[in-house]
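Project standup — Tuesday

K.O.: blocked on the structure for the chain from last sprint. Re-posting the sequence here as requested.
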Amino acid sequence: MIAVSATDGGITLEGHAGYAQAGKDIVCAGVTALVQTLIVSLEELTADQIEYSISPGKADIRYRNLSEAGRLLVGSFFVGLKEIEREFPEYIRLSCPQRQ
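H.V.: unblocked you, prediction finished:
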């Protein structure tokens, strides 16, 4: 299962969905696409400063004082994650009280 946790200062994702074998797991692929899009969008579409690390089974994104555009991008990221969670509740869990 992919566990997603968020605070005011960042987002952490850990684990593998386990929906299908590696390379065919649509849940992992969807989450990975959202994570990569968020990182690149924050870097290219805002002046916000972020730090991140991505490794197999883990992504960690840190930020402070997001701009309005940055908050919108993070909000959109969670809209996408919630949709994946709605469709595949056994494979992803959001632990983000301020976003539920």
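K.O.: great, moving the ticket to review. The two ends are 19 Å apart (CA to CA). The first strand starts at residue 2 and ends at 7.
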